[in-house]
Amino acid sequence: MTLEQWRQVLRDPDPAVRRDALEQLAHAPLEDVGIFETVIELLEDSDALVVDAAAFALGEHAHVGGVERLCVVAKDHDDARCRESAIASLGAIGDDRAREVILNALHDKAPIRRRAIVALANFEGPDIEAALESASEDRDWQVRSAVTQLRDDD
Q1: pLDDT at residue number 30
Q2: What is the pLDDT of residue 33?
Q3: Mean pLDDT, each 10-residue run in order, the chain (154 residues)
Q4: How is 86-152 classified by DSSP, letter by letter?
Q5: Alpha carbon distance, N-terminus to C-terminus of the chain
Q6: Whole-angstrom Cα distance, residue 27 to residue 115?
Q7: Residue among 29, 96, 47 at smallest CA distance from 67
Q8: Mind listing the pLDDT tens digit for each residue in 75-86?
Q9: 3-153 in CATH: which number?
Q10: What are the extents of the domains in the chain?
């Protein structure tokens, strides 16, 4: 698809079309990264599933240009699915600007805490070790298991 065709489907009035386009874009080989400006704009879409798909697409392409907006979604979005997807993408991107946001996600709902543990795999430092140590005693067994698995993979 051309850049203009991508923009057309990503700006379609139907949220289902925007979601489908983002899912396709996440796996598409892209020669022109200019499309990511439009994807970043979709992180503010009124449809939570579009936001979720936009975060996923940015993470799949490890698009560093979306880090700041992904951090906002991870911290402030009303929908937990969007926060979780943003945390996953920030972990995949591995940019240090996301460190604090990912660490703070360890205080969110259990699925987001689990996703934050996985996201921390791309970060190092005493703050990360302290966070993992604390999470190893999390009330959710899957969070504790994610910590164990992350440490076993090291």
Answers
A1: 84
A2: 80
A3: 92 98 94 89 98 98 96 98 98 97 97 96 94 96 94 78
A4: HHHHHHHH--GGGHHHHHHGGGS-HHHHHHHHHHGGG--SHHHHHHHHHHTT-SSHHHHHHHHHHHH
A5: 40
A6: 21
A7: 96
A8: 999 999 999 999
A9: 1.25.10.10
A10: 3-153
Sign, CA torsion 85/89/90/94: positive
Residue type, 119: A
DSSP H or E segment with residue 80: helix 80-93
How far, in Å, are 16, 60, 93, 136, 140 from residue 147 at the CA level?
36, 23, 20, 6, 11
- What tens digit of pLDDT does each residue of 101-118 get? 999 999 999 999 999 999
**For position 154, what pLDDT does the model report?**
65
Residue 105 CB contacts under 8 Å (≥ 6 apart), including other chains: 74, 83, 87, 112, 113, 115, 116, 119
Round to whole Å and give the CA distance between 21 and 10: 6
